[in-house]
Amino acid sequence: MGNKQVYKVLVVDDEEPIQELLKYNLERDGYEVKTAGDGMRAVEIAKKFKPDLVLLDIMMPKMDGVETCRLLRENPDLQKTFIVFLTARSEEYSEVAAFDVGADDYITKPIKPRALVSRIGALFRRDVKKSDPSNIITIGDLTIDRTSYIVKLNGKEINLPKKEFELLFFLASNPNKVFSREDLLHNIWGSDVYVLARTVDVHIRKVREKIGEDFITTVKGVGYKFSLN
Fold first, then answer.
1. pLDDT tens across 66-85, in order?
2. Exposed (0-12), middle (13-18) or buried (19+): which is 53, by Cβ within 10 Å?
3. I need a surface site. Which of 13, 87, 180, 224 has the fewest CB within 10 A?
4. Cα separation of 104 and 203, whole Å?
5. Are 35 and 23 contacting, i.e. CB atoms less than 8 angstroms apart?
6. Which domains, and CATH codes, for the chain?
7. How far apart are CA 24 and CA 46, in angstroms?
């Protein structure tokens, strides 16, 4: 593989045939793969394995995927990890719940392995493009460091999951410019990932809870902007 980076993937599903199917296809494409059959085991493995991406089923024994995602996002070592939900449930509330706890993508079963591998590759390629510039934005008492995914407010470090961080960084990089929800979905999640427009609202709310209400302004009927006072 030469100097090509080997990404690590953790597959979490209570159905062993799905684990093996995904493991086979991912390893064939050059990924390092570990598997887990429930959420509690997934959290244990992730602490040591430190995956670049987690494929996570929602309906599992012992601990469901939403709670598992919540615990994974609480680990500082996994702030940059992609979390992609795999589920047979297509209800809208499941999708909202998934993104509410920090998911990056949401894929319904039945799974087409080669299409899934292609989608994962697109996530990593998109991430590489984003991480090319070494950027630090400082606005008043707020500092956003893209190289380390660290946000500081009044000198205090604030943990933001990957998509919340990217949303804040994007808005702060374009101060006083108004973006619609569709603009933000395209720039943060990409055109190859289908998510609901309300996902933007959920992430904006969570960012505001952590950095305060003053930075991101709602422009009624249009969208959001990062305000410079």
1. 899 989 988 888 878 999 98
2. buried
3. 180
4. 11
5. yes
6. 8-130 (3.40.50.2300), 133-226 (1.10.10.10)
7. 20
- What amino acid is encoded at 124 in this protein? F
Closest CA to 61 of 86, 35, 36: 36
DSSP the chain: -TT----EEEEE-S-HHHHHHHHHHHHHTT-EEEEESSHHHHHHHHHHH--SEEEEESS-SSS-HHHHHHHHHTSGGGTT-EEEEEES---HHHHHHHHHTT-SEEEESSP-HHHHHHHHHHHHHHHHHHHSS--EEEETTEEEETTTTEEEETTEEE---HHHHHHHHHHHHSTT--B-HHHHIIIII-TTS---THHHHHHHHHHHHHH-SSSEEEETTTEEEE---
Q: Residue 55 burial (CB < 10 Å; 0-12/13-18/19+)?
A: buried
pLDDT digits (tens, 9 = 90+) for 86-130: 877 665 556 667 777 778 887 877 888 888 888 888 778 766 555
162 close to 79: Cβ distance less than 8 angstroms: yes
